[in-house]
Design a protein that fits this description.
Mean pLDDT of chain A: 98
Order of helices and strands of chain A: EHEHEHHEE
Structural class of chain A: alpha+beta
Low-confidence stretches of chain A: none
Strand order of the largest sheet of chain A: 3-1-2-4-5
Largest interface: A-F, 22 and 22 residues
CATH superfamily of chain A: 6-pyruvoyl tetrahydropterin synthase/QueD
Oligomer: homohexamer
Radius of gyration of chain A: 17 Å
Largest sheet of chain A: 5 strands, mixed
Number of helices of chain A: 4
CATH class of chain A: Alpha Beta
Shape of chain A: elongated
Chain lengths: 136, 136, 136, 136, 136, 136
């Protein structure tokens, strides 16, 4: 029996989109308001999805409490109430677009999860803008 | 034209996670609060997804009213305002984890649906914990 | 400057509506499915609202973290993953209707909050059924 | 790096389900309330999903502002506050079921999007009834 | 013990804003897209709030099932899948703005509810536009 | 006929809670994570409520499009994708707590609205933390 379990967590962070290879003019034109040098911020909603075999003995694919604790240790405690550009080393030199945040979250979690589980990450920057990343 | 139609229904039920093969100590340690012998409960949200060919004459894959009535007859009327462990025969000897509830719902509906339609079930135990099952 | 701050928390519990003064027939007719002797359950959503003067020095009416911790200590830790009828002493002899749960929550919190703050409690039994109680 | 970006927009429209090949009796029996000759309406929620390679320079799969502007130009400005049957030429002779609306939206957007991006459309007719279309 | 119980129901309807005392030009300028002669529509969300004394015997202010049935009989069955302008007699000569719909719903329900209960009506035309009416 | 119309808008901003009269130690202890010197951020949800007489001719208390445009001109365009502490002059010397943001929004809008309308402002910092301000 193959199933997918999903857990939602969230974090509130500041960020700025800016490519250091481009001049200020190009950054401002391309990223618009998201390039504000003083940062802006979001309530990010994160859904982590794991696909694999359900353990017939426990009826669990993975204990949701264990999954929640892992997401908190690896992601929430490091991103929440932070400035992604300045406070989170993974974004030194990597633009914190929703696409890149999902990529970073995926790889931080992948390292700590049982190898046989397939991982997907859904990251909502706002209720209307979100990104799905499956590790490909 | 292949499409997927989705219908959301819900039911409110009590349940308890407990493996009769394990002693009380192990159950308590493993399932934590979910092992409370007096039960706890949830507002379960259920989304049923059907994939198949749209009928060009009616413009429907399946009449949503018919689908809703089927989900009510097979699932909601049997699970709503019930104790899943005590009142629902499918969970005699099967732990009502979200994974197992999705499995039971899938197989109850599968029997009654046109064979050519692919079925998926999404079961929300809370807005933050949910399970997807595709029958594999 | 008078304002209202609001904090949402939630708990998942089993309950049963049953009046011990009435016979089984009357209970079943009056409470319908909610009278199921084996209990059913809900994801309860609780909003606590406090009205009072904002402290001009801190810009806070009350620290939301402190308010959240108080709600957890007084309500969530005692109601979550519990059977309200059997596990929560406040409902010995008091029917755990949404009206009565809101009443109990109000009075538990009122005792611990600064006297000068006006308190309201909103309790969602489901997203479609909820109760507001202002202590009158 | 392959990812999926998703953008939500919405429109409010009237519609009626009616097959001109069928007599009134059959239409009424089959479509029920949705066949009301004077129309009814919905707040439609539309999610557009694009899958493809993230541009490593910008960190974007596609600029969400550009995507939003495209959805507005192609869909929202033409469907919002309209009668789908009478005001939107795509539904002359095509029943505006959720399945068919998703199909029309898909093909209007597909024409204007970069060819290498995979497109999916999710159309909510109500929060409980929705359709997913992937262009197959 | 004075409390407020709230029940949410919904209906899907077409409508058009148009003042027959005004010429077409003025109607179009004033109501904009909402004046479309072919109508548009919404998923209306309705919350009915009742304030009064809780019955100490039952623990209910009013049975939510009874309240839901009343709202369905008086409002939902008459408004759902209808054209408010053409199919609902209360809007003959009364513009179906959200303000006026809330007014009509209030007075239809008020007639059927126990006199000692205070009534409020909240009507969502969209998730972003809504109206509250307390009968004053 | 007195009614209340409500309009929801939103903005995404960075902020930091810090009292310049206090030393760093006290700020850090009191505001916790919210004192991060590099800022964090939120998707703020703003509901503006206006109470007054409905115009019997138009059926409107106030045109929602006009209200939306006013909120955008006065609040959204000035706060969205900004750093509230650094980019918004109203918060020079005023801590951008939810309480103070609601206060500032209220007074900016009050100046531009018809005097006979009563104004309330609801500001969601997160879906679980929000503030209501009625101008008292």
């Amino acid at each position: 029996m193959i199933t997918t379990v999903c857990r939602n967590e969230n974090f509130n962070a500041a960020h700025r989109l800016h490519n250091e290879q481009w001049d200020d003019e190009k950054n401002k034109t391309f990223y618009g308001l998201c390039n504000n040098p003083n940062y802006h911020g979001h309530n990010y909603d994160l859904t982590v999805k794991l696909t694999g075999e359900v353990d017939p003995e426990s009826g669990y694919l993975m204990d949701m409490k264990v999954l929640s604790d892992l997401i908190k240790a690896e992601v929430i405690n490091r991103f929440d109430h932070k400035n992604l550009n300045l406070d989170v080393p993974e974004f030194k030199g990597l633009n914190p677009t929703a696409e890149n945040i999902a990529y970073v979250v995926y790889h931080k979690l992948k390292l700590k999860l049982p190898k046989q589980l397939e991982l997907s990450v859904v990251l909502y920057e706002t209720p209307r803008n979100y990104v799905e990343y499956h590790g490909k």
